[in-house]
Specification:
mainly alpha, 0% strand
């Protein structure tokens, strides 16, 4: 028999956000192998072709990175609702990206987008089912 430990929901949420971030990093890294991608980056011919777009992309990616820590350090009520709202938002965003990226060279990106959406949907699920306390 193996011993089972009950993992605190805060730890589960932090681990799920960490997994999401790894998928983001791998997706962006593997995208460099798509033919023409590096040349387009060097020539400035890419979706992040001005400072405001680069700032917005940084904000979009910084939020999940912060959620790794915020899931553990914020008060339970705030952490729960931030995880529900942001998890839902990122699930929708990743589904949109996954469906809009379908092409032969971006199969890896589609796979990662759907894995990310499953992870963020799990975040919503665990946050929604966050155990309460019993009062007597």
């Amino acid at each position: 028999m193996l011993e089972e430990y009950r993992i605190n929901v805060r730890i589960k949420l932090s681990l799920l956000w960490t997994s999401v971030m790894f998928c983001y990093v791998y997706g962006d890294y593997f995208e460099l192998y798509v033919p023409g991608k590096v040349e387009d980056l060097l020539n400035g011919n890419n979706i992040l072709d001005d400072p405001s777009k680069l700032l917005m992309a940084s904000i979009v990616l910084a939020i999940p990175a912060f959620m790794i820590a915020l899931s553990s350090i914020l008060p339970a009520f705030l952490s729960r609702w931030l995880n529900i709202v942001l998890g839902s938002l990122y699930t929708a965003l990743m589904l949109f990206i996954g469906f809009s990226s379908i092409s032969p060279w971006y199969g890896f990106y589609v796979l990662l987008a759907f894995l990310e959406s499953m992870l963020t949907a799990s975040i919503v699920w665990y946050a929604w089912r966050w155990p309460g306390t019993t009062s007597e």
